[in-house]
Amino acid sequence: MRQVAEFLVRLALAEDIGPGDITTKGAIPASLKARAVIRAKEAGIIAGLPVAKAVFASLDKKIRFVPKIKDGAPVKPGTIVAELSGPARGILTGERTALNFLQHLSGIATLTNRYVKKLRSAKSRAIILDTRKTIPGLRQLEKYAVRLGGAANHRLGLHDAFLIKDNHIKLAGGITPAIQAIKKEYRLKKGPEVEVKNLAEAREAIAAGASRLLLDNMDIKILRQAVKLCRRAKVASEASGGINLGNLRAVATSGADYISIGALTHSAPALDINLKII
């Protein structure tokens, strides 16, 4: 993840600075030193401190960035997250880029933690998963934030896990042909995960050798029946589609092994964090 973060930091700084930070260069002497604090303005879970540190290190190695808490730690309004000291120009130029990363990733970790806590309160053993619904280029960082929030990662991309979805099924000629084709192509003994939308599709996928079913957008009654089918067949079950904090408890009562939630990354509001010169 470090290499990805460093690349993204360089890209973000190039986007923001362009040919130069004209305001800072004009108003702030190159020799001026400064101290600053990064402070949380609302409660949440902090994520992205190493990325924020990399922002300032990329601008000026003389800037000292000292985290006051660990990544993944809870904060309340007023908590000092990090302290900085060094060349004032570098601190000002890197301020917005560092905060953009921190606020976005902390927002993901915070929202994820809310889902995890709600699931625990329901005494469910299900594991909350993220999805591939991420901002292009930021997936590794966003999935890192999900882990800090207490959930787990689904596949990182198209390369590390099979998942037959509705369009695969349509083009392959059905659920069974799609499963058979993948098993043949990769010489698999264990079948892939398959997205299903009803009980008939669930039965077909199980019969064809699927190892896990993604139970997509099912109402609670059908979802419970589908989970029972999976349990009898010793196939893992994953509830997905339209899941939010309002219906999470009901979904958890289905007994699904996993609950995947796209909102963790595509709808997390930024956590309010600022940087102030002291």
From TrEMBL:
Source organism: candidate division WOR-1 bacterium RIFOXYB2_FULL_48_7
GO cellular component: cytoplasm
Single Gene Ontology MF annotation: nicotinate-nucleotide diphosphorylase (carboxylating) activity
Family per record: Belongs to the NadC/ModD family.
Enzyme Commission number: 2.4.2.19
Assembly and binders: Hexamer formed by 3 homodimers.
Binding site for substrate: R96, T131, R132, K133, R155, K165, E195, D216, S240, G241, G242, I261, G262, A263
Gene3D superfamilies reported in the protein's UniProt record: Aldolase class I, Quinolinate phosphoribosyl transferase, N-terminal domain
Biological process per Gene Ontology, one example term: quinolinate catabolic process
Pfam families to which the protein is assigned, alphabetical: QRPTase_C, QRPTase_N
Protein name (Swiss-Prot/TrEMBL): Probable nicotinate-nucleotide pyrophosphorylase [carboxylating]
Keyword flag Chloroplast: no
The reaction(s) this protein catalyses: nicotinate beta-D-ribonucleotide + CO2 + diphosphate = quinolinate + 5-phospho-alpha-D-ribose 1-diphosphate + 2 H(+)
Domain Quinolinate phosphoribosyl transferase C-terminal: 108-276
Pathway: Cofactor biosynthesis; NAD(+) biosynthesis; nicotinate D-ribonucleotide from quinolinate: step 1/1
Domain (Quinolinate phosphoribosyl transferase N-terminal): residue spans on this chain: 21-106
SUPFAM superfamilies according to UniProt: Nicotinate/Quinolinate PRTase C-terminal domain-like, Nicotinate/Quinolinate PRTase N-terminal domain-like
Annotated keywords: Glycosyltransferase, Pyridine nucleotide biosynthesis, Transferase
